[in-house]
Amino acid sequence: MLKGLPTVSVSDIPKLNDPIVLVHGLCGCDRISLMGRTIKDYFPGIRQQLEAAGNRVLVPRLSRMRGVSTRAAELKRFIEKRVPTGAVHLIGHSMGGLDGRYMISQLGMAERVKSLTTIGTPHRGTAFADWGVQRFGRLVAPFFQLLGLSYQAFLDLTTAACRRFNQVVVNVPGVRYYAVAGLCEREWMGPEWRLPHEIVSRAEGPNDGVVSVASASWGDHTEVWEGDHLNLVNWPNRIAQKRGMWESLAPDYGCILQRIAACE
User: Shortest CA distance to 257 belongs to which of 128, 91, 121, 104?
Assistant: First the structure.
């Protein structure tokens, strides 16, 4: 069973005073729809779980591969449009956590954000981004440029870029920062994660297949959940499903809200 926290029932999930904004990561979107029907949510089951407890939950659609500064500006515009006044709580997966940090620190949104919880966010970068940029950067860059596509996101996730980022984008007093890191053991690891997991493991230690526990740890408190990088936002683990051992992680987001509510 892939679990990081005790399961919380809907009746135990607090209703926060302010809206929750779920921020997707690199190459993500809010949802994939066809003919008006949702085929796949980026945060499957999580939005529904939190809304069932009475919370207002918003999910913006940010640029998939543009850099942190661009995505952070998009996030700010989304919040200002959908929540014109008052505060919000941010929960950002992967690169979405960096977007939230940048928006709070650099775009004048500190008074609008009460808390930021990052999920599998590479605060210190990831060795897999280093590996990819070093080996394929020169080959891929002309292709992206030809198509008019941005690849800045991949550069922003390198360890060197995140070191520079952290020198400028510092935590703001008054905003609570929490984090969840992922730990994917080999018995649950699908073939799609083996190469990046090994690269990150050699350079940084235990990881979720892309981001190390050390890099994902941030702020006032960090939880470590079992699962790969996408399991953390409730994408099912295929191996665990096959063994009949997968359980939804959506209820665990109730624990995140309990921690936030305690500081409201």
Answer: 91
Question: Has residue 5 been placed in a domain?
Answer: no
* Torsion angle, alpha carbons of 59, 38, 11, 8, to 10: -80
Q: Answer yes or no: are the C-beta atoms of 203 and 127 closer than 8 Å.
A: yes
Query: Domains in the chain: how many in total?
Result: 1
Within-domain flag for 1: no
Structure confidence by residue, pLDDT tens digits, 194-241: 999 999 999 999 999 999 999 999 999 999 998 899 999 999 888 888
**What CA dihedral angle connects 211, 90, 29 and 79, to 10 degrees?**
-150
CA distances from 164 to 15, 76, 98, 128 (A): 37, 22, 13, 18
pLDDT in tens, 10-56: 668 999 999 999 999 986 544 443 334 444 789 999 999 999 999 99
Task: Summarize pLDDT for 140-172 with one digit per residue, the tens.
Answer: 554 445 444 456 888 899 999 999 999 999 999
Please indicate, yes or no, if residue 129 is contained in any of the structural domains: yes
Which residues make beta-bridge pairs with 31?
41
C-alpha 53/C-alpha 12 separation (Å) is: 8
Domain range holding 212? Answer: 10-262
CATH number assigned to the domain comprising residue 19: 3.40.50.1820
The pTM for the full model equals 0.89
Position 202 in a domain: yes
